[in-house]
Amino acid sequence: MERDFDNDPEKFELRQIASRKVVKLRSFYIHAIVYSVALILFTLKHYFGLPLNAFPTRYLNSFVMVIWSTAFLVSAVDIFASFKIFGEEWEERKLKSILEKKNKKQKWE
């Protein structure tokens, strides 16, 4: 299976794109878990009055949560909306276009 990627640059490039998507999704899911835990701690601290004054929870205030929520939403839109807007068909067309340009450039060299 690996030998197919060595001989076919298009398949290799598609695999690279897919692996980058997987890395982005993995980091988004980790971010979602950490954000969820922080949101729960923030809610417990500010709305239920739990005395959570240890190092990381000491700095969970409304300003930090607004900034973090905005960053999380932008990250979610970037990942999921870009997959819909720039889907697999667009990626394949763009990849073929790039490879054709590269092949034409190599013919002239």
Structural features:
mainly alpha; 5 helices; 109 residues; 86% helix
Kindly describe this structure.
The chain is an all-alpha fold and 109 residues long. Helices cover 86% and strands 0% of the residues. It has five helices and no strands. It has helices at residues 2-7, 9-47, 55-58, 62-85, 88-108. The longest helix has 39 residues, at 9-47. The radius of gyration is 22 Å and the shape is elongated. The two termini are 32 Å apart.
| SS field, number of helical segments | 5
What is the radius of gyration computed over CA atoms, rounded to a whole number of angstroms? 22 Å
Percent in strands: under 5%
Low-confidence stretches: none
Q: State the major sheet.
A: none
Order of helices and strands: HHHHH
Class by SSE composition: mainly alpha
Shape category: elongated
How much helix, percentage-wise, in residues?
A: over 70%
Mean pLDDT, as a whole number? Answer: 78
Q: Count the strands?
A: 0
End-to-end Cα distance: 32 Å
